[in-house]
Design brief:
By secondary structure, this protein is mainly alpha-helical. The chain has two domains: 92 residues, Orthogonal Bundle (Endonuclease Iii, domain 2), CATH 1.10.1670; 110 residues, Hypothetical protein, domain 2 (Endonuclease III, domain 1, Orthogonal Bundle). It has twelve helices and no strands. Helix 2 packs across helix 8. Iron/sulfur cluster binds next to helix 9 and helix 12.
């Protein structure tokens, strides 16, 4: 039977954040954890693998080579062997050297100190010109390394955001950065990012969200549709 449940209110990000932090606690990630160039290389290593494996690959790389200058000129096969535990080692070794060379070409150095002089938008646009750097990687560097009020949209953030009704799924992860950026207040954007990741990992899972008992289900469009017997898209 089709029920006539009312539509949920448009999610209020502050209220959602308060509830999520009440459940998962304050952010369990920190900003300023790495330099911008370290964060950028760590991002490349994190693609299509687990955090554990990518951190191990990053540590191996730092232990093997004394500087990014050494990585820039190293044998790509040797780099690949060093980061093998992170998966896709051959393509990642090539990508890392391409990025390092592009940074040197642009700045004459192998650091990203130039970003501190730029606005959030300018810095993002600068990063997006580097080979293989997309909106998520640019946002991670800005958010985590530079502490800018920018929201990286990973698979968890995207899934929770569209299920709850903050964004439409059809816009895709790339455009979701801009939409969420405009929607969420700068002063809570980092905490919001972390809270959605925690929620996506622990409750709003792909492909089966645990809606019953979800702390924010009264704010959630997906849950409202389920309750109203409206066909829903469960795919992440
Ligand atoms: S109610 Fe379900 S779909 Fe909505 S946020 Fe909670 S777990 Fe995710």
């Amino acid at each position: 039977m089709i029920s006539n449940s009312p539509s949920p209110p448009v999610p209020n990000a502050h209220e959602v954040l308060e509830l999520l932090e009440g459940k998962y606690g304050p952010p369990n990630m920190i900003q300023g954890r790495m330099s911008p160039i370290d964060e950028l290389i760590a991002c490349i290593l994190s693609q299509h693998t687990s955090d554990v494996n990518s951190f191990r690959a990053f540590d191996n790389l730092r232990a093997k080579y004394g500087s990014w200058e050494e990585v820039e000129t190293a044998d790509p096969e040797e780099i690949a062997d060093t980061i093998r535990c992170g998966g896709l080692a051959n393509s990642k070794s090539v990508r890392i050297q391409e990025v390092l060379r592009a940074i040197r070409q642009e700045t004459g150095t192998l650091n990203l100190d130039c970003l501190s002089e730029l606005s959030d938008t300018e810095a993002r646009d600068w990063l997006l010109k580097l080979p293989g750097v997309g909106p998520k990687t640019a946002a991670i560097v800005l958010c985590f390394a530079l502490g800018r009020p920018v929201i990286p949209v990973d698979t968890h953030v995207f899934r929770v955001a569209w299920r709850m009704g903050f964004i439409e799924k059809k816009i895709g992860e790339g455009k979701a950065h801009d939409v969420l950026q405009a929607l969420i207040s700068p002063e809570i954007i980092f905490r919001f990012h972390v809270a959605l990741i925690n929620h996506g990992r622990q409750t709003c899972k792909a492909p089966t969200p645990r809606c019953k008992g979800c702390i924010v289900n009264s704010y959630c469009r997906f849950h409202s549709q389920l309750e109203s017997n409206v066909p829903v898209d469960v795919n992440s």
